[in-house]
Amino acid sequence: MNHSNPPSPKRFASAGPLTGQIAVPGDKSISHRSLMLGALAVGETRVTGLLEGEDVLATAAAMRAMGATIARENDGTWSIHGVGVGSLLQPNQALAMGNSGTSTRLLMGLVASHPISAMFTGDASLSGRPMGRVITPLSEMGASFEASQGGTLPLMLRGISPAVPITYRLPVASAQVKSAVLLAGLNTAGISTVIEPVPTRDHSERMLRGFGAKLEVGEEKGANGLERVIRIHGEADLQPQTITVPGDPSSAAFFTVAALLVPGSDLIIQNVGLNPTRAALFDVLRDMGGSIEELDRREVGGEPVADLRVQHSALTGIEVDPAVVPAMVDEFPILFVAASLAQGTTVTRGLEELRVKESDRLAAMASALILAGAKVEEYGDGLVIQGTGGDPLPGTADGTAIATHLDHRIAMSMAVAGLASENGVKIDDTAPIATSFPTFEALLDSASAQ
Ligand code: S3P
């Protein structure tokens, strides 16, 4: 979690087709939530397939600091003994969130409706990200905050119990903000309501129900069409669960695009979560001409899952419908790489939120791809990319390294660009990859070697 070590630069270059079978690690969003809800259920929750990346380990450490007992068993199962809703303990040191916006914003929701206070700290990337979006609703519920200038970390949160139930309409399409309010609502008497003008990932809703919380999801007519309305009944009593975490579609995305771009590839990616609020990248890539076949569609841990067979394909540029943005918000960096090798132009819009992720992903990807030889124009809310028509990108010149800005998805996207380049692409630091996908490089080696 501490990236103060010297950076580890690396050049990623073509190493032949990606073939055989790989399994990507567990879903990051579901892993965070299983630790948080397990820590609030009295009794033992058992989790298999948990993502053991730095972001999720930051959540585990925070839940331990607030009273839960969390242990990894030798077979990789995680055992969580929770404290009960309303019984989180006062942490006796700052909660170190590392690079993880999800840990920070969701835990702020949990702390807000408990009679405890917590200091939240993060790395340089996280300390620049906006927290006002959760401070606003949680203040309405009664919590108080001392944030750094601009509403950022380090931040002191004083929770309150009883908190006040609110009705909150999300001003940005953000599952993190939605989840912060729902989690605060767990320990708030009465009904807390979140209105979502645009649907975002629904893992919190699914898992809260799975743990026995009373939660209603409906659709109501709003000013601009149908809106999702989510109501949680507070002072919930959560029951411990046995959870299997499906593979992360956001991690599978890098291997999907790599196999589409590298000639001769024919790769099976096992156990990929395909929750419709997450899976839009695969549809967009199919619309571009990508061969992505779903095998053995099934349900794992209440989520749709399939194995994906991906074969090298000629891609064509498209205009991406801004309506799908929330369902692939983390996948635009790797889509930009695919677009750089497609035939024709790809247009993306409605991506303002990408500017406040682990880095400004529009600026970071535009300059990274240009350095690697792609044709990219940057606009306020998206990129327009002129593809090579299947030819490899030139790659980065000797002595030039792509700046990854402490952003795992920039690092992995540009690693994939390196596989589809003539001279390879050098990135300035591979360390951020461990926040979400610690086995990325090993899996890349194994898929290329088969
Ligand atoms: C996440 C929600 C998304 C996403 C992040 C994980 C979650 O953030 O980018 O990687 O687990 O709720 P926003 O809600 O800010 O869009």
TrEMBL record:
It comes from the Bacteria. GO terms for biological process: amino acid biosynthetic process; aromatic amino acid family biosynthetic process; chorismate biosynthetic process. It catalyses: 3-phosphoshikimate + phosphoenolpyruvate = 5-O-(1-carboxyvinyl)-3-phosphoshikimate + phosphate. 3-phosphoshikimate binds at residues 28-29, 33, 174, 176, 330, 357. PANTHER family: AROM/DEHYDROQUINATE SYNTHASE, PENTAFUNCTIONAL AROM POLYPEPTIDE. Monomer. This is 3-phosphoshikimate 1-carboxyvinyltransferase. The lineage of its organism: Bacteria, Pseudomonadati, Pseudomonadota, Alphaproteobacteria, Sphingomonadales.
